[in-house]
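Trying the structure run again after the queue cleared.
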Amino acid sequence: MRISYAIVFVSDMDRSVAFYRDTLGLPLRFESPEWTEFATDGATLALHASDGTSGGVDARTSPAGRCRPGLSVSDIDAFHERMTAAGVRCIEPPRLLHGTKLATYADPDGLAISVSEERVAK
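Done. Tokens:
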């Protein structure tokens, strides 16, 4: 298992892209109104719009200024079984989204943690 990304929920994508790209100097990998990625060594820093209208993100549960870590595992179904057997609260069970199996769990303080299945290069 490895940390593959961190999602930062933002209120203004253009302003946040300018900050992370121009001020901090992170190299831009992909940009859209709802989702932007920066290439960093070892992991991706992603910005996600938190306006309640895009990508299924509810601004009440993912307000701007919050962060969500993302983990990659080789077998998300086995991981899901292990987490539920351990009593970890599953916010969203594994599902296919944009070609990747993805699930969300809560840590002891309620912080959402996204877990995706590693993509196999073809």
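The longest strand covers residues 2-10. Worth checking whether this holds up in the mutant runs.
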